[in-house]
What does this fold into?
Amino acid sequence: MSEQGMDMWSEGSDTEVDAETRSRGSNRTAGSEGGDDGSLLSVYHDTKQEGEGEGGDDQSKHEDDVSYRLRIYGTAETDEKGGRNPSTRVGSISKRLSSQISRRSSSFVESMPETKAGWTVLVSALLSAALGYEMNLQRSLTQPPITIGQLPKGSAIASIHSKMSSTPDSILARNIQPSLFLGTRGIVSSTAAYLLGGPSSSAEHIRFREIITTAEDGATIAIDWEVPVSKRNAAPTVSQDKRKSDILKGPIREPVVIILHGINNDSSFGYIQSLQRCFANRGWNAAAMNFRGCGGIKMTTPRGYTGGYTGDLRNFVHHISGKLEKGVPVFLVGNSLGANVMTKYLGEEGLSGTLPSCVSGAASLGNPLAINSSLVKFPFSMVMALGIKKIILEHWGTYKQMEDPNFLAAFRKLLLSSTIAQCDEAAAPYVKRNHPFYPYGGRIGYKNGDSYWRDSSSYRLVRHISVPYLNLTADDDFLVSEPNRNRLGFLVSNPNILVVQTRCGGHLGWQESPPDSASSFGATSWADAASADFFESIIQVNMERNGSAVNKQINSDGLGSWSPFENDSDFQQMMKVEAIASRKELHSRL
It folds into this structure.
């Protein structure tokens, strides 16, 4: 071989040796990073690669895939196609999650204090943080209500609004400070209104029940009264028997406030009794009306209450008006579904011009205005359905007296329903209703749930309300805030209506810490005080408009007789709505 060839061979050999040396050196370096025996691993891999060739590369790749599955999924099992085995995925994820929770739980337990003093410091810190957050939330929600209305100059409603907002401490001018933990969250506020009990019994008031029977179909209605027997913080000036007799037989000398409860409730709920005590403290008679089938009274007719039947309220108002001393006013307060019934009643009576002259004003709390049970969300829809089924089961002995097999089949279907919308759909053809025009004759059934919802929605009649009317809603009312706000135009179209919206309050809650209270944990209802102030302002405005001063003569019973109007005919003329002559015109106005 020539020298030139030898040199070329030598250079090529050196190049190959250097490349191999560098390759083995890099393998040793990688192996040495993993431990002292990295050089042995390097030799092993080199030998394996030299002996197996391309097959060795495939085996190494296969081992890398297995290692990957072990590291990521915790198992190397694969399905028939060579992919991840779905049957082991849940198990591997569960193992990893359990391992994570175990490690974190162990760390959490180890971080807990070991001494009593340490626990005291930890608990105090947590409570302080929670209280600080709650107080910041309370401050952010504390603000005065928003008032919306036409308020025509010189009108009664404008004068009433002026009295309710004339000073910084007036109910519509001052801030509403929600009570800590109860009033700052709508769902908590609403739950407290339903579950917390009312005020305890008082020596200044008496409670008793009156049972009335409607003339239309013989339904039995329970009225729970709370009336004052003395002036506040004073000894009783009249016997309880005398006060009870005045209410049951007449004459009634003090203002009467009729209170209507919400769906699946009765007069025993805390928010109803709170309203009663608020009005009784002002010297008025509070009558909580239980819908038929509610309040523990056995049903005497297989027709229960609905959101659109106003006949029972109409009968009770006429029952009360016949026992009033001349000039004594009657006020109405409706809550939730009861507010819808009350509003529909006032609209019907105003439309036909038949509202009794004693009815002087009304307050609506949490009124949906537009009823559509299909829009009620979970879980409230199911809870309402359970309440309806509970009432039906309690009175099933009365319902099953109906001989119509379709009636019983419909109510059996109702008992199997899971939502309030399904309950309405099943019962719609058999529920009681009334004609919206005088003489408000009774009728039975609707075509379907949609027909029932439309007929029961009180927003269609609010423009015909002829007395001062206060509509209260809260922005965080998860049940009626949206439908009420969507019908705001119907409300403000009537100059007799004053709309008040609050930042917080939930559904019928409105727990607040009043400004004159030193504590931030109060649970009194702002809506109770607002309703009472509204009625008080109506009384004052009516007195001023009739040119009479307060004429409250103290009688031998110490409570005095109520005589706010020197000329009752003037008041009747002022409040009376012109009757509409023809039924055709009535239909066109609707």
Notes: The radius of gyration is 38 Å.
